[in-house]
Predict the 3D structure of the following.
Amino acid sequence: MSRRSDLALVVAVALLAGILIEILPHTSDFARVALGIPLVLLLPGYALSSAIFSPSELRMSEHLALSIALSVTVTILSALLMNAAHIGLQARPWAAILTLLTIAAALAAARRGHLRELRVGRPRLRSSEVAALAVSVLLLTGAAAFGLTPLAAPRGTQGQTALWIVPAPHRSETVCVGVISDQLHTSDYTLALSVRGRALARFGAIRLAPGASWERAIRVGPGRPPVTGVLATTARPRASVATVSLSDWSIPTASC
Amino acid sequence: MIDTLPAVAWARSRLGVRLSTPWLVLCASAGVAVASLAEGLSRSGRPGATPLFWGATILILVPATLRMAQTRVRHGERAATLVLVGLALYAIKVLRDPFSFTFADEFPHFHNLQAILSSGRLFGSNSILPITPRYPGVESVAAAVARLAGTSPFVSGLITIAAARMMLMLALYLFYARVSGSPRAAGLGVLVYTATPTFLLWSAQFSYESLALPLATVGVFALVRWQSAPDGAARARWMAVLVLVVVGVVPTHHITAYALLAFLAGTCLLHLLMRQRPGAPLAIAAVTAALAIGWLALAASGTIAYLRPVVNTALAKVLATINGQASTRVLFANQGGAEQTPTAERLIAVAGILVLVAGVAAGIWAVRRQRRASPVLVLLMLASAAYVLTLPLRFVPAAWETASRAGEFLFVGVGLVVALGIVEYILRPGRLPRLRPALAAAAVMFVFASGVIAGWPASLRLAQPLRVRAGGHTLQPPGYVAAAWSGATLGPAQRVAAEDSDARLFLDIGHQTAFSGVFPDVDAVLSDRPPLKAWQRTLLRRNKITLVETDRRKVSTDVIGGYFFDVGSPALSSAAAAAKFDLPGASRIYDSGNIVIYWVRGLW
């Protein structure tokens, strides 16, 4: 295989990707992204279509369309086969399959003489066209940065505050009770807990910033009694914001 | 011809600007930047977003259409321009939802992807769309991207659909160019195809059809290459590609596989009717049928049970509407039939449909006049005529979705046929040469706008508040908070009955088994007046439902718009229906005002 052919490049990138994933299967960095995406979406199909067709049979656009389509098909088939063979769909076996298939197809293509010479031609662009492309990069970067920035809520957006109660895990006769503020402003709350209608505890003022939460584990006494919680704001203590009640202590709390 | 347009001539003489690829890239990038601004204005509740949105689409589409209308453009440049347009339009969808998937079908598919990544196995379960794990194509590809590139599941899904978009634009262009013999008509045809009402948003979602349709398009391109192959060896090579593509389509999406099979069968039939038997893809159609039936029998036997009610209901409602026994659907309204599209947009939508119908007629007339129709071109003409015939179905409440979904496939015919009409009647040499390309661009933009308006509720076309900044923190809507709380506090083993949009959040965010809708009839359980009836307790017991979430916001039943912060006081449903679970035996364990979660194990 010529060192400066398309297939040599395909084999090199596939090998690099395969080796990187074999050595560092759980990392996430630029090299992994730059090599991993082509290994799934481009290289197997490119090598396969090169093995099937001679370069003169396909235009570059046709080769690209087939490369993506066949890569997708190969990836789907490899997933089905790995699943049928009870091989977990993990990074290492998947990378090995796609790398080996890509190299095998590239070698088959090379043996049939289906190589394209890599020519790194200098694009003939005017200075204004280079400037247009540079501005494009800036525009796209700005669009992505702005698009990914959470902005202030529209005027009139409704915030909520949640009150919750569950049995404490691994601790009998104890409940976990919590407040989650999904309000747009800092607010003060009071929380009243009662057992069988009798006041048990009162908390407040609980000051919560937007997105903040508050949580306590509270012993409620023997016999797993029914517990009720009422949340109100300090500004309007008689108007409840939320009410919770716990009567079934079989709730399987995972954590609190 | 384009260079004589006043604006283009001015830009060329004063700025040295030609309609070359770098300038098209700049226009498309500017379109994406303007779209980002529009989405930002929309999700922060500021005015001016809608005009910017339309400005963005004009920046992306109009320069590309002007370039496609030119005659002396290299094949590769046309293909590159179309890929550019496809990705720029996809960027609009991504910028609408840059933080997470929010389309109704994206939630179940994202759940499948997360399940594959956590278990390493295919064919898991999905309580919202049980059929989707049986067609794991798109999730397999996204899982491979996540595993091998180390990207998050969300980003992996976006990358997968971006690749599908590239494939669609390229394959459609190559297919059209082969069928029509005109790269110019092919390029314009692909741009007309972007006017499919579902193209901009619905078909760009992370869903099985978004990958299967582009794959199938590569298949039909391979078919026409197979038909025109010079010798037996070349035919065998293209047949191998076609079979490989079918192998990819069949485990990815049921309807697309059947549509591809219908296309192949239709091509065979037309070849026989037109006495061109050598080009009939009989063997390929047989292989496709065998693979589709085999998958149906071995891996996805629930497909018929899934599709049958949809088709049966649609047919029954069509007949009832024709007989005057059912009311017609309100056009340009949201899921509840309430929200109205602005009058100007409705006028554009209707006028755009008229332009499209005229384009279909002109295209069919042009092909007939030239007497050059191949069986595949005849099939595309029939598809375009069928699309026009499905338009009245949009008045039928239960059939509009079926018509809309069929439209995606039928529009493959519309794209080329309308483009042939444009080339024949608008771009042909004649009087007013300066105006002709501008007229073609205006026609494409007009039908595109019409498709966008018809395809999605106006109030939800642009980004909604999903993540907002307040006090130095990022907040998520109450539905997300409730679902996340359930997963973190109760673990992922709960079975939840909830309204349609909330159930999707419990599935993806809370990692619970969530039920909504009518199978089982969670809708009735949630919306019925008190008291809780015996059959409803039985339903909870039979489905082992441990949590019931009541959400009084009416928007929570809307699978398109139910995921976002409420701006202004939301319309509320009956308090009594929501409070009927305040019973001995049930624990009210979470309350955020409109959203309440009950532990209902004690009600079984």
Q: What stands out?
A: Chain A touches chain B through 108 residues (CB under 8 Å). The mean pLDDT of chain A is 92. The longest strand of chain A covers residues 198-208. Strands of chain A lie at 151-152, 160-167, 174-182, 187-195, 198-208, 213-219, 227-233, 240-246.
